[in-house]
Every structure is written in structure tokens, then in C-alpha cells.
Design goal:
By secondary structure, the chain is of the alpha/beta class. It has helices at 46-58, 69-81, 108-128, 140-150, 176-184, 204-212, 228-238, 255-259, 275-278, 283-290, 301-310, 321-337, 339-352, 355-371; strands spanning 11-14, 22-25, 28-33, 63-66, 86-91, 134-137, 156-158, 189-194, 217-222, 244-247, 264-267, 295-298, 313-316. Helix 4 links the parallel strand 6 (134-137) and strand 7. Helix 6 (204-212) packs parallel to helix 7 (228-238) and helix 6 packs across helix 12 (321-337).
Length: 372
Amino acid sequence: MLQKANFSTCLVCYKSSKLSSKDIFDKIPIHRFISPEIENVKSFFSIRKKEVNRLIKTYSFKAVWCNDHTMLDIGRRIKKKNKDIFLIYDSHEFFQDYQLEFSDNDSLFVKIKSKMWIFLQRKIERKNSKNIDLLISINDSIANELKKIFKVICPVFSIKNIPDHLMVHEGLELSQEIVSNLEENKKNLNLLYIGNYIKKLNGLETVFYAIKEKPKVRLVILGTTKSQKHFEKIIAKLNIKDQVLVINRQPIELIPSVAKYCQIAVIPTLECGILQNYLSLPNKFFDSIKLSLPIICSNLPEQKKIIEKFNNGVLTNPYSEEKATQDIITAIDKIQLDMDKYNSAAKKANQFYSYQREYDHLINHLKTSITS
């Protein structure tokens, strides 16, 4: 995107043991440095200072675009050395109220350490936000919350996470086992859930209870979980093992290869007191839109705007598991009865949203701001 707009670009990203610290990809220089992991405490201090000095000596920056709270700290350190730097914070996660994710088997020590780490990171994010020249968020609701928390006076853009990768990719194929399992369920009504899932948080339990009442409906889960035992118990209790197909995370280019076997997407997020969750427009929502699938999703503010605008799905109760389960059963019936109408609406929503459309007005703003 930036290259097409004639910006000279370099990519600064996290270190990986499998990749070199410096590289070039598609004519873009890549500089890999610290890991943000909790185990690397030094990454907060000496290593960051050292890497920032190295970056300044290697590259001549006019602007720094930071895609998470850790990179914002790097950007703020660069700006401290050069006050003319245009600092952009692309806050694609509402980190100030981000949910804590633990494995079922994590120790109390790990949980406490993680909470302390998150607390420190949030504090640093608030401090660093005072230096930004442009704030980007994934939707209007979260943008408004960030403006209140950060007390920013800079321009704010809402850029939705529209995927541009959902197309069949030559050379990548699903395993024969996965294809066979999907083919076996081809004659059923298949619901698709995309992404990782955690007990209670993503509401997947409500879909299990719903399909128990719909023997000819299958649920295809494309993702992984840290709560495997929890979900296995529910599946066994409901005796729906034959109705649930779990496909572990695949390359994003293979999502359409799975989705072509499905007729409806489900995004059953439950309201759980976490603002990040309540105000979100999750990636799986726009993945589903770009796959032209009718959507059954929770009646949360940002999702509601889009579903009501295009009528490309049915909203469910986000506050009660029992009501959500019944709403999902009703929604399946409603979409099945008028599948042509919902498929047509899903295609219109797909055509309306595009990666390029979201970024065009932002690029124009950057051209004016950075060159002035």
C-alpha cells in the first residue's frame, strides 16, 4: 500500500530464530529486532535503546507507523531523537482493555506474571500516546474510547480490518484428510467459525447447544483453542462429535478452500464485561464478509451497524447463553428459508468493503501531513 503510494518504506518487526536480523522482501528492507515476550525483560530497557540507535543510523525516517503498543514505544524513542518525525499509532487492538488469555494448564505464577506484564505495557502505552501525530483504530467505537483514554488532540482515523488475502492461492492445498472430511459433510448445512476460541469468551458453546437441536447441521471450526478439554467435554456431553469438524489453523490463503463447503458463518461472541470484546469488529467478521457468507453474529454495536445496513445476516443475543442458543437455532431456520436473499446481501457487503477503499483517504492524509 505504501509502496504503491510512492513512499519509501522499511519494515521493522520482531525477531525470530528462524529468520535473519536483516532481509529484503519485495524490495522492502526488513529490520528484525527484539522479541516482545515476557521472558525477555531486558527488551524494555537496554535492548530497545540500542536498537533505536541502530535504526536511526541505518535509515532516514520522516514517519514511523507503529502497529502495536510495543512498536509504539520504539517509535516514541525514535521521535525523541528527532522531533520532526511524524508518529502514527495504528491501534488495531484495544490494548487498554485487552482480555488475558491463559491456557487451562498455566500455573498461578504464570498468570500473576502475565497480569503484571500487561499492567506495565498498558501504562507505557498511555505514556507513549502523548507523542503521536495520528491515531488509527479499527472502528469508531474503539476510536472514541482511545480518544478519551489517551486524551489525544491529533487526527483519528477508523480503518476496518478488511482482508485482501482471501483468494485461492496456487501451490497451497488442504491436506487430503481435511478435504475428505469436508466432502463427507458436503450434503449437510455447514456453519463456519474462523479463528481461535476460548471458553465462554467467544460463545462457541452456544453453537454446540444449537446444533444439538439441528441434527442435519454441521459446525466447521477453522482454528485452535487453549481450552481444548473444556470443549471436548461439551461435545461428549451433547453427543455431537459427528456434527463438529475441527480443522487446526491453516494458512490464510486456504480459508476460501474450507469456506466453499460452508453456507453460513457464525460469530457468537458473548458480552463478558471486556470492552475490547464488546466494541470489536473481529477479523473473522470481515473474513466472513469477504467470503460472501451470510452471518449469524452477536448483537454488538459495530456488528449491528453492518448487519442492519446490508441485511446480510441475523443478530443474536450477546448477554445470555440460553437466549443466544435459541437465537442461533432461529437464525439458521430464517436464513435457510430465504437463502437466495441472504446470499445476495452477502455478495453486496463483500463488494462494498475493500482494503483499498479503507486506506485511500488515509494515504491522501499522509501525503499531505508527511510532506508538509
